[in-house]
Write the structure tokens for this entry.
Amino acid sequence: MGSMPAKIRRIGVLTSGGDAPGMNAAIRAVTRAAVDKGWEVSGVRQGYAGLIANDVVPLGARNVGGILQRGGTILGSSRSPEFKTPEGRRIALRVLEDNGEDALVVIGGNGSQSGAAELMRMGFPVVGIASTIDNDLYGSDVCLGVDTALNIALEAIDRLKVTASSHHRAFVVEVMGRDCGYLALMAGIAGGSEVIIIPEVETDPEAIAAELTAVYERGKPHAMIVVAEGAKYNADRLGHYFAGHQKRLGFELRITVLGHVQRGGAPGAADRLLGTQMGVAAVEHLARGQHGVLVGLRDGRIGATPLEEVAANKKTLDTALLRLAYILSR
Ligand code: ADP
């Protein structure tokens, strides 16, 4: 965590990596909280790629009106391979300095905050806001966007369960999360699924087959299998594994990959409030001269974690919840 001697006059804000519902609430809060301090705000378009290309627009209080309820990010986002190179980051730093930015707020996930840590190491004041539907970022128990994505996944699971019951089918529903099983685990529990498959726990497809048969024999009219995209046996591989010999499962198997549908939703109340609080907290940290931190939700409160600590640690998942899900699917 660094401290900042000079007074802030202008800050930049960008959204990077995968977009997440609530990013706009955070952009709005950062902008209006900064305006309240008498600072100017530069909105950087398309994440680090836009920073390198100096694609920057001034943001005033009026520019961020009417965005609180919108999904995605009005600033646009991207993945920038160039920013991963030292030369790309040198250009980005030069743009920030030439534009007179005193600090940068980075709204994004794991990769984006690694990028923020690199800027910090180069001596530039940065504050991160933990935002990713994957929830794979150390320093925030729940990241901005997760709640909305979870609700979208749940709605899909609920609907699939209805059709699964009508036809005595088993549905495999694949949810996002990259290498993290959080979304799948929580959607599986909240959606009352029979089987949950996550990357953190090795799963034998034969054990899944045995479980489905047991579910069938217990007289259930359906079976829901929620699987994380990053699991070894994701929807595609499970489908291949059981192709041609589904009969032994008891159920006919159908596969649905939710994919990007989970991203695009309008943020719910939780993510609007979280984005708003995180945005204000980021500005308050800068105003106090604190930077090099990630603003996140910790033990139910908005808190800050040094970016170095974020980069050095991997978020863990409470896999004991899998056992709970198993008990509850009796
Ligand atoms: P997310 O932030 O959602 O996890 P990515 O992992 O795609 O998304 O990261 C977004 C961007 O952050 C990348 O395109 C890249 O520009 C930058 N980035 C990711 N990892 C690093 C890193 N280790 N060093 C510097 N920049 C990085």
Remarks:
- The pocket of adenosine-5'-diphosphate is lined by residues 16-18, 48, 79-80, 83-84, 108-112, 114-115, 118, 132 (CB under 6 Å).
- The mean pLDDT is 95.
